[in-house]
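Late entry, written up from scratch paper. The run itself happened at the end of the previous shift, but nothing got recorded in the book at the time, so transcribing now.
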Amino acid sequence: MTAVLVHSCECEKCRWGEEHPDRAFHQHINVLASRLDERQRRWFVALEAMRIGHGGQQLLAQITGMNRHTIERGRHELEADLTDCPAERLRAPGGGRPAAEERDPGVIDALEALVAPETAGDPMGRRAKGKRSSLATLSTALGAAGHPASRPTVSRLLRKLKYSPKVNARRTEAKSSPADRDTQFKHIAKQRSRFEAAGDPVISVDTKKRN
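Output as recorded:
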């Protein structure tokens, strides 16, 4: 049986890992939406946005990853009364282009393996994790590994893995850094892998540079 992919909420509180009363509800919305066809999903999300009122469309777009124009379209369809809407599907079963991770289930693991050695960020999970490689670099590397993915796809998958798609700001400083900078990162990644393989703890320390 093929596992159904459930979208991870991208609202600010859920993305930063904060505990809040609506976290479980946002998960329920995405689980239900994953079980609906295209039209039903559009209507369901639009109905929730209408229930919330002001700011509802923006919030539901963050929760579900659905385009705000699609939610707006669903709202117009609901307001036009669905009783006269045909019950059959708009598309034949299996119609439409499936997501990259559906076509290639290994692409997420491949991407995670690429960014793991260069991961940085808040160890408490309050902010999205950072990485050094650009979207173009990761897209090229995935293609070379047999997992073709466009830059927008890489950006979406990074968010799914709780990474920020933006390049770490410190990357711009690397141009004036010592030539062995990358060697240092590789050494750290190698040591981390050794510790993880041995079951030993790995501690991430975020330091601040003082002028």
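Residues 171 and 204 are 19 Å apart (CA to CA).
(Scratch paper discarded after transcription.)
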